[in-house]
Amino acid sequence: MKIAIAGSGAMGSRFGYMLHQAGNQVTLIDLWSEHIATINTKGLSIETAGKQQFVKIPAAFPEDVNDDFDLVLLFTKATQLNDMLNKISHLLTDNTAVLCLSNGIGNLETIKKFNPHLDLLVGTTLWTSELIGPGTVVLNGSGYIEFQAVGNVSHETVIKVNDVLNKADLDARPSNNVLLSIWKKACLNSVLNTFCTILDCKIMDLRKSQYTPVLAKRVVDEFEAVAQAKGIPLTAELALKTINSSLAPDQAGDHYPSMHQDIASGRHTEIDYLNGAIARMGKELNIPTPTNTLITELIHAREDVVIKN
Ligand code: NAD
Which protein residue's CA is at the shortest distance from atom 15 of ligand 1? Predict the structure, then answer.
């Protein structure tokens, strides 16, 4: 299959690599010139279990790509999605399926607003990846994908996308309620990512504080209230179960979450698509969301301190 990865950072590179290894014709599309140049000169550097390999996969700016793709995989940060869609609009033909696995609440709306007629699939993934420098990703652990078609996507397209992901060992599972998965993941990120960023700690360090469960419950209760009003069957109990299992001693990572890494490298975070989305919707629905509002403001304040422009 001919596949373009639009947004080839940590996750886009990981998926691009795995799809390439499975025999697909992959093009990595990105906007970071140093990253593109490094991949094209040295190859994409993949580090797994301390071993490094260089893989030849073409990388390019959107405007330099002119091809018909069967699948475009959107893997930007939520903040970058609209800009990327505009830059790759020439690649989105009637024969192209589009799959978005980025984190956050609101990506579906962004894509539908951009073009309501796309063959669109959205989902979440528990795969992880780390971009440690231009052209270099570190792959750890395993994961899976849950995805669902939005609107009038043919059954054949869903099967084709499912097959191509599974042949690349990405463990794809079509879902009947992907919005619940997206909200559950956003709730998890709204606790772990923001707490680690505000407290400047790794995920495993959250276990040390007696305030973690207390604060997590406040975030999650507001998520439940807004979700229920929106018809999303997310409960506080379900969200807390997911959070608690991510904080279990054998799971809680010895690493900083991506929001912490964004701040460390002076970049904007996805806060407006996490706690910020709950604060915004709560306001519209007249549901109080003081905790998510405060966390959103704290992260934006942190961005103001570290981002130069
Ligand atoms: P990323 O920050 O690695 O990459 C996103 C974009 O930012 C890419 O276009 C990349 O080239 C660019 N970028 C990254 N560092 C840059 C730098 N220093 N200078 C200029 N440009 C830079 O993002 P990601 O981790 O691949 O995340 C993509 C989406 O997937 C997000 O919604 C994220 O929340 C989600 N996600 C990430 C992980 C993970 O483990 N990284 C896991 C699950 C979901």
Answer: 9
pTM of the model: 0.95
How many angstroms is it from 287 CA to the middle of ligand 1?
Answer: 32
Nearest protein Cα to ligand 1, atom 43: 128
Tokens standing for 222? 């507001």
CB 236 within 8 A of CB 221: yes
Residue-wise pLDDT for 120-146, tens only, equals 999 999 998 999 999 999 998 889 999
The span from the CA of 257 to the CA of 197, in Å, is 8
CA distance 80 to 164: 26
* Cβ atoms of residues 204 and 252 within 8 Å: yes
| Ligand 1 contact, 157 CB (< 6 A) | no
The span from the CA of 276 to the CA of 219, in Å, is 11
| pLDDT band for position 49 (cuts 50, 70, 90) | confident
Q: Could you identify the residue written with the tokens 């691009």?
A: 16
Q: Which residues contact 171 (CB under 8 A, 6 or more apart)?
A: 142, 143, 144, 145, 165
3-class DSSP state of 134:
coil
How far is Cα 252 from Cα 103, in angstroms, rounded to an integer?
19
Residue 29 φ/ψ, nearest 5 degrees: -110, 135
Angstrom distance (rounded) from CA 194 to CA 197 = 5
- Given the residues 2, 112, 113, 185, select the one marked as catalytic: 185
Residue 185 annotated in active site: yes
Distance 111 CA to ligand 1 centre (A): 18
**Measured distance CA(120)–CA(8) in Å, rounded:** 19
Distance of CA 286 to the CA centre of its chain: 28
Q: Are 246 and 220 in contact (CB under 8 A)?
A: no
